[in-house]
Amino acid sequence: MIINVTMMIHLPTLAGRAYRCHCSSPVFFRNSECLTCGTPLGYDPTLARLIPLMPGLSDGAWVLWQAVPAGVQAQEYLRCANLATPAACNWLVPVTDGQAPQLLCQACRLNRTIPDLNDAAHPDNGVLWGRIELAKRRLFSSLLALGLPVASITQDPERGIAFDLLRSPDGGPPVMTGHKGGVITLNVQEADDAVREAVRSAMREPYRTLLGHFRHEIGHYYWGRLVSGTDWMTGFHALFGDETQDYAACLQKNYTQGPPAQWWLHYVSAYASTHPWEDWAECWAHYLHMRDTIDTAVSLGIANHNSYSAHLEFTPFTLDALYQPDHPNAKHFLDFLNDWTRLTTLLNEMSRSMGQPDFYPFVLPREVVAKLHFIHLLVASSSWLPTDLQGTEAVQEVIAQQTDSQPMGTQAASQAQMQSQSGF
Ligand SMILES: [Zn+2]
Ligand SMILES: [Zn+2]
Ligand SMILES: [Zn+2]
What we know:
The protein is of the alpha+beta class and 424 residues long. It contains 10 helices and 13 strands. A 4-stranded mixed β-sheet has the order 9-10-12-11, with helices on one face.
């Protein structure tokens, strides 16, 4: 059937990706200052916004640019101590009365080990670390906007998260990227494009990125945190299988025999076929790919721009493909999913026009659609939103008034509102 490409917001927007400085210039998630007017910029992960800054009253503190109307107390921030390092972290650390200020932001605080920046034998450690931290911030901006639990191992030794960003010893065994007990290990050389591309090609993978690694590994973490030992296990077993089968033997079998015939009817990737835990982590990563990319498309106004309309051959998924077709919000997820398929069909053609690899080199089979719906229901039920957002709407309105732009930053609050109303 022929369907006109029209993007609609079927799920709440999370971390909107279109930001503007107070001078109205577009600014981007990674920016620490406006390239037009020089105003410092910082990302507030609670608001899920990149905001223009001016010095606050306290020493070294910053506040939102000229934006303190009567009745709204200015939130003071420190800049993350990693701003002036190769990590170039532009995140903000809120200053809370009566509490000792944190020096690192919520994302940087999760690092347990970072590359040695004084290693004369590996002067590229800083550059590689910077790329890793940018991908990590992108990951956590989504997780925080989704309202998922994010705590460091220092804060929560039992259930927290830590990152070991390790470089393999020269001539020694390579560091294996993976997750165990809340600790995510990343081989730093994955940030080297030539190294990563060589591995991708050798492994015959269609897609390999730092962000993909992080989204996959954090999926393992949330399985242990949100699924294991809960009522969700029944659904997990029905969709993903028995996770008690020997993990090492499964990996070995995949290594020697390859994936099962016609794996693409059941899995989102060949690697997902190795073990239920890997199937879960792969689907979790795709769920985050989808949420963030749709957010970006909606934030940038693709939905409303006629020039993006197109006619594409597309057979939409139907409700019976979902995990719970009778769920009261099933139609919202179905529409989101079909938007995703339309968008990626379009973007794949755009990529091919430039001779680039496909934007999204995957096909979602029906079985994976059910798995994604299961993950969506889990994420929605695990979110701490809509609490903890009081007051943010007032501040965001101020930003919107100043920037004379499309409404900036009501997404987080409206997301909370929508979630509380509809039970996403
Ligand atoms: Zn500016
Ligand atoms: Zn930081
Ligand atoms: Zn894995």
